[in-house]
TrEMBL record:
Belongs to the short-chain dehydrogenases/reductases (SDR) family. InterPro entries: NAD(P)-bd_dom_sf, Sc_DH/Rdtase_CS, SDR_fam. It comes from Candidatus Fischerbacteria bacterium RBG_13_37_8. This is Short-chain dehydrogenase. The lineage of its organism: Bacteria, Candidatus Fischeribacteriota. One of its GO terms (molecular function) is oxidoreductase activity. Signal peptide: none annotated. Keywords: Oxidoreductase.
Length: 247
């Protein structure tokens, strides 16, 4: 797929990894549709950055825990842009939830955003893409969906679900739509992390360093430009899953 002029919807793209992906793809000439839930000002700032660099884009609000809002989001994007070529499911909620103290609200918030939201975004986008002849869906999972992190059970369950969802959708949406996932390792630490904590995270990888958002963005560019990869999970973790006692 040639990215120039393509309409790309990125969920959770006001901040952090989603923002980096948006800026990277805007630099390739894609028309970026930013999605946000509560971070309106940050979404405005990201859109301003895109336009200041010569790119084009738009922004839409939706609570991905609510299917009716997802349906409205996809409809608005199609009405505004004419069609949707690429969906990147990047929206994610992440906070510590020891199993003994998980509440129903915690569970619903994490599963609702990270898995349920991604599923229904893909469902509505996939139906549209099929009707108009094709497209690409890329899901952001996590290595925690392969080997779970301690005290993050709902998050890891959701990310494992993203991996299974990717493979299932690759089968059902073929041959017109490719569906792949990326499972990052330590790319962006929490904003509250100290330098000592960041160094500790880096030491858990075989490469002894943190990854960068550009590592994820480059993989996404590859998946968008190639047309013979689907149902694949790309682990980008600096070898962390192979490192002893890393998780």
């Amino acid at each position: 797929m040639e990215l120039k002029g393509k309409n790309v919807l990125i969920t959770g793209s006001a901040t952090r990894l989603g923002k980096y992906i948006a800026l990277a793809l805007a630099g390739e000439g894609a028309h970026i549709i930013l999605h946000y839930h509560t971070s309106k000002e940050k979404a405005h700032h990201t859109l301003k950055e895109i336009k200041s660099a010569g790119g084009t884009g738009a922004m839409f609000k939706a609570d991905l825990r609510k299917v009716v809002q997802i349906q409205s989001l996809i409809s608005k994007v199609i009405d505004d842009c004419g069609q949707l070529d690429v969906l990147i499911n990047s929206a994610s909620v992440f906070f510590s939830t020891p199993i003994s103290s998980i509440t129903e609200r915690d569970w619903d918030t994490i599963i609702g955003t990270n898995l349920r939201g991604a599923f229904f975004c893909s469902q509505y986008a996939g139906v549209h893409m099929t009707e108009k002849g094709g497209g690409k869906i890329i899901n952001i999972s996590d290595i925690g969906g392969i080997v779970p992190w301690k005290n993050y059970a709902p998050y890891c369950i959701a990310k494992a679900g993203i991996i299974a969802m990717t493979k299932a959708m690759a089968k059902e949406f073929a041959p017109s739509i490719t569906v792949n996932a990326i499972a990052p390792g330590n790319i962006l630490p929490p904003d509250t992390s100290s330098q000592d904590e960041i160094n500790q995270l880096a030491s858990k990888t075989l490469l002894k360093r943190m990854g960068q958002p550009k590592d994820i963005a480059e993989c996404i560019k590859y998946l968008l430009k190639t047309d013979f990869v689907t149902g694949s999970i790309f682990v980008i973790d600096g070898g962390q899953l192979l490192a002893p006692l890393s998780l």
